[in-house]
Description:
This protein is mainly beta.
Amino acid sequence: MxxxxxxxxICAISLSACTSEPAPLKNSVVTARIxxxxxxxxxxxxNQRTYNENGYVYTDVRVTASVDRNPDxxxxxxxxxxxxxxNSEWYFAYWLYETAFPKMPGLEMMVDKNDHNELLGTxxxxxxADIEPHDVVDIxxxxxxxxx
Length: 148
């Protein structure tokens, strides 16, 4: 009996040593210098939506990043899943309170990695308020590391 208990105990230990927990997701972050201020957007939400347009199936990856869960200042962009390269986003905006600042011509976004639920890249350029007085905001040294 003692031998059986000892054998069961050894098996239990060896099995528990072999199980592995899934690796935790890395922390997502979006950073940028906005009108001379360094901003770290450390609350990142990602949504995916799949579309079928005349047989062409694709998935949008929608990213919204804010500072400490405060939606007053945020950056939002949308890219097609698995598409990389320059200006592969089809939407980009900076938000301050409820004013949207969509990208202006010349804003550059480079998606370096966009697969295996990992989205990495850079962005810089200007955005302009969509309401009067149509203020322009400079965005420099933008980076995104998004894991979902």
